Amino acid sequence: MNERLLAVLDSAADFDGVLITCETGRRYLTGFDSDDAGVLVITHKGAAFIIDGRYFELAEKQAAVPVLLQENLYEQIKGLLADCKRVAVQSGITLAQFEFMKTKLDGIELAPCEAVDKTLREMARIKTDDELNAIIKAQRIAELAFDHILGFIKEGVTDVEIAAELEYVMRKNGAEAISFDTIAVSGANSSVPHGVPTAKKVSAGDFVTMDFGAVVNGCHSDMTRTVAVGFATDKMKQAYNTVLTAQIKALEGIKAGVPCSQIDRLAREVISAAGYGEYFTHSTGHGVGYEIHEAPNLSQKSEQILKAGDVVTVEPGIYLPAEFGVRIEDMAFVTENGCKNLTKSPKELIIV
Questions:
Q1: Fewest CB within 10 A of the end CB: N or C in the chain?
Q2: Domain range for residue 203?
Q3: What's the order of all strands across the beta sheet hosting 177-178?
Q4: What CATH number did the domain enclosing 40 receive?
Q5: How far is CA 100 from CA 78, 91, 103, in A?
Q6: pLDDT along the chain (352 residues), means of 10
Q7: Do 35 and 114 have their domain in common?
Q8: Are 114 and 199 in the same domain?
Q9: Is the residue at 351 inside a domain?
Q10: Model's pTM, two decimal places?
């Protein structure tokens, strides 16, 4: 078995085996994306990935573990767990699914295991070269979409149209999916950090905030840019430059061994000193990888420490209710001596 599988098994020291049923866990441990299908069984005898006929042929070629064609799923699982009395189940399934599994695997004690979940979260933080390259490729696709959208945004275009255009360009340029529902909000709607695009038409003097990303080989990218349409008032410029200064300050503080809360503090201090402290209403960033939100969390209350190999977002913002919002977001790869900014798009204020 590979190191990841062994680490998961070792984390479940009080169990005889482990069942991985969640999509991201399966993807991370097998290297194969099977959407909502498949169960990974790990015991001290080895590991096997049971998958149905829709994916079997491709899984045989791509998965990093032996693959079995699903015929009678729970009988197959029982066979693989023949010598197991107590088995850990990765969290993420519903209580109803868990109870159903228990009835089907009668005779085997099933229990959730926080240690398995913690081990998966911690391992997923440290990106392999292949994972990092996929994240970078996804980010380059997102940047192509940003370059394109600068020529698309104009008075009269709706927020929904901007979001749809970003998604279309990312898919056209090789994204296997979008990272999350694209945010494109203008004017007063941009004061909501995770606002939903509407039919509102862009007007001169609006800020347009766009938060979007692409997926490549299961790995996500995540970026935010805010642009002004036609012109920006002095108040808009002041808020924008405050966010930009805060973001750069936070990026400069990133390196392995630094508390995540310290990165949040670096950004927050800049914004608070400028008088906008109460209008920065979320954490400074989060990990990114096979999931769009992973460990670590760059927040005020985080007790996590940055590690070399983490990929994190840095995304401070200012949101003035009923007026406008500004957010600027890059992704950073954490190293022993600092970080590598994975985002290449310009972030000085752009007026389109």
A1: C
A2: 126-341
A3: 177-178, 214-216, 219-220
A4: 3.40.350.10
A5: 14, 14, 5
A6: 91 93 88 85 95 93 94 94 92 85 92 91 94 98 98 98 98 97 98 96 98 96 98 98 98 98 98 98 97 96 97 98 98 98 98 98
A7: yes
A8: no
A9: no
A10: 0.90
